[in-house]
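Reply to dn_fold:

You asked what the input looked like. This is it:
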Amino acid sequence: MNLGVIILLIAACGYLSNFLNWRYVNVGAVRLLYYIGAFVHETSHAALCILTGARIEQFTVFSRQPQVVHRKSKIPLVGELLISAAPIVGGILFLFLVNQYLLGGYFTAHAPAVSGWQDWAAFLAIPLGFLAQIDFLQWQSWVMILLFFNVGAMLGPSPRDLKNVWPALILLFFVPSTWVAPSLTAMGVMALGLIAVNLILQIAVIAVVRSGAIVGVLLRR
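and this is what came back:
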């Protein structure tokens, strides 16, 4: 297992999350929540642009395609990679701060060590662990549920992000996870787990809405 595969999986799951949002649950409240995730995503890009010396030319959040348009980073290759991967770190940091300081550490999570494909069964501990902590009678759970509807937009690198760093991404496919800091792999696995929670919640809502629509059609007959 390596960071290249993990980043690609995060991007694919994030894209699927955004597709489900816009295709099946594109209602006012969910759309507003999407923009919260988009704001965190694009702000993370902007922060790394500043830190790596890349001039920001455009910062857009409230559109169908939020984006940060910027010049090249002053740090060759690595700077572009950091800018493109920034939402993974920024999104996790945002959720951590909300949980820690707004919710008083209500939720707990630990990323399992994943060194190879055989360890990915342990990955399920992240979404299942989060879902097991949800208590619909507690307001903290509802805050996190609402925020989790944004996680795909918040954490997932966009196709544009991947396009900007495809040489570095290809290189990462040949770098074993044991060669990089374990914390980077753990952060990537955590991001995948959080997007999995996002997808589970989206699918559950879509199933409930569609079931209600089917029942309504049958009752009108």
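The radius of gyration is 18 Å.
Hope that clears it up.
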